[in-house]
Amino acid sequence: MKPPPFEYYAPTTVEEALVHLAEHGYDAKPLAGGQSLIPMMNFRLAQPAVIVDLNNIEGLSFIRPEDDGSLAVGAMTRHQMVEKSELIVEKAPLVHETMPQIATSQIRSRGTFGGSLAHADPSAELVCVSVALDGEFKIANQSGERWVPAKDFFLGLFTSVLEPEELLVEIKLPPFPERTGWSLKEIARRPHDFCLIGVAAVLTLDENNKCQGAKLVYLSAGDGPVEATQAAELLKGQDMTDEAIRAAAEKASAEEIDPSSDIHATAEFRRHLANVLTRRALKEALDRAKGN
Amino acid sequence: MTKLFKLSLTVNGNPYERQIEPRLLLSDFLRHELGMTGTHVGCEHGVCGACTVLLNGDPVRSCLMFAVQAHGHEVLTVEGLGTIDDLHPIQQAFWEAHGLQCGFCTPGFLTTLVPFLEENPDPSEEEIRVAISGNLCRCTGYQHIVEAVQLAAEKMRA
After folding, report:
1. A2 reaches B (C-beta below 8 A)
2. Using the beta-carbon criterion (under 8 Å), do A3 and B46 form an inter-chain contact?
3. What is the ipTM of this complex?
4. Rounded distance, CA A26 to CA A4, Å?
5. Cβ pair B130:A191 closer than 8 A
6. Where are the domains of chain B?
7. CATH no. for B5-80
8. How far is A46 from chain B (nearest CA, A)?
9. Are B59 and B135 in contact (CB under 8 A)?
């Protein structure tokens, strides 16, 4: 099908975009890479009266190291640019590893870092990874800006804290502590498909190789990114033995995630996959943490 | 009546200018406004890859972009790859290795593969399969396409 008619604005600055969003409120929709919004418009599942196209705002496309060791990524930075960035390899290796698993090369040419997050799809890798990395989101509106931690940004299925007159403009990724390992594991029927289930693991070891802190965040496991805090608590202070890893994987997959059943897999099968993937992810994160 | 926008862009090296509605998809612009029907439209939601074109050298789904967004940019379609008498090496390889049957998906495969083979002159079979994972073919079972890409890589290295 074809998208319905809409009013079209293509501002070149954030300020200008915010004026259009404030004026049109719920009738307006910002257009980032368009790789989710345009298919929804083609199906007429979304029929925004006004499109505010962000693609001409050059100031929103950047990957910048900050003085505090963190990395700032502009909301309109395309996946392809993130995928090829040396800064990302060095400072956000989990993001680097995630990129090839996001859709296909054709989608990554257009899709954007901030667009994927603002869309708040619980099956999106970056949604999950941004929580695993304790990312912070800079949100702008006409009266100023506010910072929201990734874990508070996502409210539910395709829903975030963004108000209609607001824009996500920047994502800040803090540096890893010393002796930190990471991993992203997912199962999809083809490399670029929406995954059946997936998990991002971040693990920090203390000087005795015990777990100082762990984070397990799941995708396609509920209405938003699902963080398994009880499983992480089980690991804290422990030697990362196979038994400890198995216990955490069991806890998270049986009690903390909430996957649904559909034509591709039952919820039970997804829990089984989550259990296996959690063990693999924690082992890989452990190896990397030791290697640091 | 929706406001019309002036669109100036380059397609296959030639400049074009048209007045268009903003809701017009790039795929439909190429086919209906410019008459370039080599870009095929399959699913219109970004899954099949048949409508892939190059935007400033990068492969994109032309069904997931409004034509108005291509203002000031360069588009390359399958029509810009080669001619009947002088096929692009990838086209030649698809012909020789039987990389197509009905041909509906072929333009999308070809355009996807141009930047891929430029960046990866000697790809493994695994890399080829990942590269074409965003393009659906319902005839070949992909084996002949993979072989065609290997042959194309060989031709382009020579």
Report:
1. yes
2. no
3. 0.95
4. 17
5. yes
6. 5-80, 89-157
7. 3.10.20.30
8. 13
9. no
